[in-house]
């Protein structure tokens, strides 16, 4: 098993990763897009919230999924059968008030996945949205 650290919020890093993966594994048939951060935000609190944290959560949770799809779809389309799996969240369907940005980004991932599936319906790429069950993690710490 190999691992490589990439910031999915930086499209150039994602594109470079896709290029390296394509060279190393030209018959790659599955990509799982699973990155996410979650902060608890209270918009009822006095004063503005940390704009950098708000933006970073959107960058990783939504833009990262879009950048991964964009970078890896050419490789996946070249295969006889392949799949792109976007990991969403139940909070994209039933939002958690304490995590409004996370919930919103996961709702957007759901919409993006549906649109992508529709656009690629005639291709060899299967577009999957995976909604994992609730588990205990350090996601919001």
Salient structural properties:
single chain; about 140 residues; alpha/beta; three-stranded parallel sheet; 3 strands; globular
Task: Itemize the secondary structure elements and their pairings.
Blueprint lengths: L10 H14 L5 E4 L17 H27 L4 E6 L12 H20 L5 E6 L11
Parallel strand pairs: 1-2, 2-3
Could you walk me through the main structural features you see in this protein, from its secondary elements to its overall organization?
- By secondary structure, this protein is of the alpha/beta class.
- The protein has 3 helices and 3 strands.
- The chain has helices at about 10-25, 50-75, 100-120; strands at about 30-35, 80-85, 125-130.
- Strands 1-2-3 form a 3-stranded parallel β-sheet, covered by helices on one side.
- Helix 1 packs parallel to helix 2 (about 50-75) and helix 2 runs parallel beside helix 3 (about 100-120).
- It starts with 10 loop residues before the first helix and ends in an 11-residue tail after the last strand.
User: What is the end-to-end distance?
Assistant: 28 Å
The Rg value, from CA coordinates, equals 16 Å
Number of domains: 1
Mean pLDDT: 95
Strand content: 5-15%
Overall spatial form? globular
* E-strand count: 3
DSSP helix fraction: 40-55%
Q: Can you list the strand order of the major beta sheet?
A: 1-2-3
Q: At the fourth CATH level, what is the homologous superfamily?
A: NAD(P)-binding Rossmann-like Domain
Provide a compact summary of the structure.
With 141 residues, the protein is of the alpha/beta class. It is 43% helix and 11% strand. The chain is built from three helices and three strands, in the order H-E-H-E-H-E.
């Amino acid at each position: 098993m190999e691992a490589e650290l990439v910031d999915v919020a930086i499209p150039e890093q994602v594109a470079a990763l896709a290029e390296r993966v394509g060279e190393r594994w030209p018959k790659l048939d599955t990509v799982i897009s699973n990155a996410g951060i979650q902060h608890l935000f209270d918009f009822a609190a006095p004063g503005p919230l940390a704009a950098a944290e708000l933006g970073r959560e959107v960058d990783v949770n939504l833009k990262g999924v879009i950048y991964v799809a964009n970078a890896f779809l050419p490789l996946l389309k070249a295969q006889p059968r392949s799949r792109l799996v976007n990991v969403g969240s139940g909070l994209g369907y039933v939002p958690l008030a304490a995590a409004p940005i996370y919930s919103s980004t996961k709702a957007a991932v759901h919409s993006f996945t549906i649109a992508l599936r529709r656009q690629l319906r005639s291709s060899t790429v299967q577009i999957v949205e995976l909604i994992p069950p609730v588990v205990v993690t350090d996601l919001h710490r």
